Amino acid sequence: MSADEAARARGFADAQSYREFWIAAAASLLFSITTCHSALVAIALQHTGYDLHAIGILIGITAAPVLLVTVFSGVITARLGALGALRLAMVLLAIGVGSLAFTRLNFWTALTSRLVWGVGVGLFLSPLMVYVQSRLTPLRFVYLVAAFSATVPLALAIAPPIGEVILDHFGETAMFLTGAIPAAIAAALTLLLRPLARPEHKGGGSLIKAARSWHLLPVAGLLIGGAHYGYTSAYLAPALREWGTALGWFFVPMTIAMIFSRIGAMRRLSALPPRLLASAGLIGSSLALIVCAYQRGPLFAAMAGIMLGIGNSMMYPVISAWLGRGAGPADRPGVQALASTGFYAGVYLTPWPETYLIAAGGYSFAQIFMGLVGIMFGIAIFLSPRLRAQEREL
After folding, report:
1. pLDDT tens-digit profile of 82-102?
2. What is the value of pTM for the model shown?
3. Closest CA to 153 of 316, 43, 17
4. Fold of 207-394
5. CATH superfamily of 1-198
6. Could you read off the pLDDT of 13-29 as tens digits, one per residue?
7. What DSSP character marks residue 140?
8. I want to staple 180 with a disulfide (CB 3.0 to 4.6 A). Which of 98, 314, 315, 381 is the partner?
């Protein structure tokens, strides 16, 4: 058996694609490590002397460029090529994070750095998934996409602890400068990757042109799954503190479950229909919020963390692979931009309206409401005749 045949047996286009898959995974992990320094931005800005209002603006402002650039990331990817757009995202993130070592002393210059940071984040996901999916065959497609995406939650276990040590021992300047290094290395790694062949037409880079009627429910599922993740990041910590539960009981099991489900469990689960996986993932993350709202204490927090980690970790990679598998090379940038926009909209836009749910009935009410909405959409995805027919066409 030749090297190319062995690679195809594993689900890759050829032997070089197998090597490029792992290089891209290393680059994704390094980029995500730099991104995860966002967990320390509030602390660093507080040390610099900003009040809570200014810190809130500097943290929240990244949502605007992330969403705006994500919407047009398909067009940018079609124009620059997947590798060109990917390198640009990595360089911009490195500049945005590293420049805060110097710009954080002034509000407006710090704001500029945060905007550049957001542009890098918004541009990253679509070309990355376009490139990775181009290196795969239909065999084990969903599993390999899901396993690849484990690099993102894995960075959560690496970046904040290391960044905290650097911050405590060497200060804010050192934290931001060293935080930019992984993204810069990631950009250098992309030089080892082969560029993709240019599509015959570039219209598919448009998010609107790439959209199909059957995309509606899966993208809505990404929006709701992103909202669950956004709520978890923004409000679950104060909710757990209010209920007297240590944060680690939820977040540590959640992170472990995310990584395990994408690398381990998806090896077998990927053989199931993506409609079933997407539905189960959304219902699982919904039930996690409801369990955490009804039952208090470490055991139930850990149980909810595992459920949300498994459910939410299946959402983006499964639906991204589902949409990508049904798209040709020319349409794939627009399709991945559509998937990224749905997820990022949930993560970044919903925390503000979620405050009204919290104000109306508290954290428990907000979680139960969001959980019930997620269950409804999960059932709709599973029962949809259109999605069932589309699965048979793939």
Report:
1. 999 999 999 999 999 999 999
2. 0.80
3. 316
4. Growth Hormone; Chain: A; (1.20.1250)
5. MFS general substrate transporter like domains (1.20.1250.20)
6. 899 999 999 999 999 99
7. T
8. 98
